[in-house]
Amino acid sequence: MEVMYKSTRSDQTVTASQAILKGLASDGGLFVPVTLPKLNISIDELKEMSYQEVAYAVMKEFLTDFTEEELKNCIDKAYDSKFDTEEIAPLVKADGAYFLELFHGSTIAFKDMALSILPHLLITSAKKNNVKNDIVILTATSGDTGKAALAGFADVEHTKIVVFYPKGGVSPIQEKQMVTQKGDNTFVVGINGNFDQAQSGVKAIFGNKDLEKVMNDAGYQFSSANSINIGRLVPQVVYYVYAYAQLLKEGEITEGEKINVVVPTGNFGNILAAFYAKNMGLPIEKLICASNDNKVLYDFFTTGSYDKNRDFILTTSPSMDILISSNLERLVYKIAGNDDKKNKELMTALSEDGIYNITDEMKAELKDFYGNYSTEAETAKVIKNIYDTTGYIIDTHTGVAAQVYKKYKNETNDETKTIIASTASPFKFTRSVMNAIDPKYDAMGDFELVDELSKIGNVKVPNAIEEIRNADVRHDTVCEVSEMESIVKKFLNI
Ligand SMILES: *Cc1c(COP(=O)(O)O)cnc(C)c1O
Q: Which residues are bridge partners to 369 per DSSP?
């Protein structure tokens, strides 16, 4: 049966490949499957499969207009030796939980799980819809997404990628990761401005109709690698299914046994993927949503009121510093009974007043979810505690999740076996992690800390870090915000 995708804000309906090409619906809504598909295969069969085979079994249920050959080709190109382990997403048992390590890809954060396949899904979608133009990805980044998108699109034929980052507004390791990016189709530009200006600049370029025509004449069109693209969400469902099958294979659980999942959450993409996995039939009991001090989601789950009118707090888990969780819209639409008018009303209230309240009936539909948060001090403490008792070192985002899981267990005494999504390697946030373990480390330089972490944690320094240690800078363009468009044109020779 063909799975079609419809907007959360109107009845605009498209195929999977069209939804991937468009990214966002033209009414500003997000594309969701009209009906969520079921897993068409038993867990018993899945447990004998490789990550790539599980990926096919799951993704084919969502991307029904892709042929078997097309989809398998995308999967094989994405989940290859770019990952430093054949398992792709290994499970590590520690401190009474199973950490699902989603950071073994080329930029050592979980965004690689989806951004390594998105370019292939996108060019396949373009071919299927007779798009002859090359795709130009434009992204503004505050650090992590830019690098993961660059790594995903580097040297992918018929694509080019331009990333704008705020010069001086990203961490030294993040900047070094981006400006050393290889691939002739990549272009990294620092702007003299902040992230918001970078993002507004990119949106203005996207909205420029004259430029669109010039681009089209030259054989190009823009697209986005943003996390609201359904082509980023679907690949994330895979690792929950894979993890469950692995637990069964290892004899950690019995067939049909329910598990909980804890996800450190920002834009709500990762945890929504776990919710979709549950809807496919995977035996998941609770979806535990972990926030940092920007606890807008905790407040939402406890009160039914989503209120972004508050201070934005900079934390040591920056990828979760977010006040508008875009993908929550997909859940709100669902708990409103797939009602696009109701959802639109709430989203309009959010953009106009910064707040909306869901109805009691909608709130009752949230029973699968539990929300809580971890303060900066609690996160540091749990990182140290897990290291001291087990020797396992987790990053700050995973630390937030580990702490929220402790709060959940204290409150509920629930002993259900639990997976914690581990979203970044501790090597990506070395300074915060090492400071949590012992403040004496703050005196060390960035790469000294890397070596020390490797030593005390007994883990090899990931390639992603080794690569940038002595890598040549390949991108040194810096521009004013007002020059962003002309810089893009120059890169494309138009
Ligand atoms: C992006 C990110 C998150 C948040 O994931 P969402 O899907 O946006 O909720 C958490 N941790 C890390 C390390 C990330 O990069």
A: 287
Q: Active site includes 111?
A: yes
CA 110, chain centre distance (Å): 6
55 vs 33: CA distance, rounded Å: 18
Domains, in order of start, for the chain: 91-107+232-459 (3.40.50.1100)
Counting DSSP H helices and E strands in the chain, the numbers are: 22, 16
In whole angstroms, what is the distance from residue 473 CA to residue 136 CA?
Answer: 23
Task: Determine if ligand 1 sits within 6 Å of the CB of residue 23.
Answer: no
d(CA 147, CA 223): 17
Q: How does pLDDT run across 144-158, given as a tens digit for each residue?
A: 889 999 999 999 999
User: Does the predicted model carry a pTM greater than 0.85?
Assistant: yes
pLDDT (tens digit per residue) in 88-139: 999 999 999 999 999 999 999 999 999 999 999 999 999 999 999 999 999 8
CA–CA gap between residue 236 and residue 58 (Å, rounded): 10
Tokens describing residue 286? 């609770």
Distance 317 CA to ligand 1 centre (A): 9
CB 265 within 8 A of CB 321: no
How many whole angstroms from 482 Cα to the centroid of ligand 1?
A: 30
Contact 86, 80 (CB under 8 A): no
Residue 425 Cβ inside 6 Å of ligand 1? The answer reads no
Site to probe by mutation for ligand 1, drawn from 139, 234, 319 as the one with most ligand atoms within 8 Å of Cβ, is 319
Residue 153 CA to residue 142 CA, distance in Å, equals 18
Q: Is the CB of 17 under 6 A from ligand 1?
A: no
What's the Cα-to-Cα distance from 451 to each of 102, 394, 445, 458, rounded to whole Å? 22, 16, 10, 10
Where would I find the H helices in 293-412?
296-303, 328-335, 340-353, 360-364, 376-390, 396-412
Q: Which of 60, 111, 147, 295 is catalytic?
A: 111
Q: Is the CB of 423 under 6 A from ligand 1?
A: yes
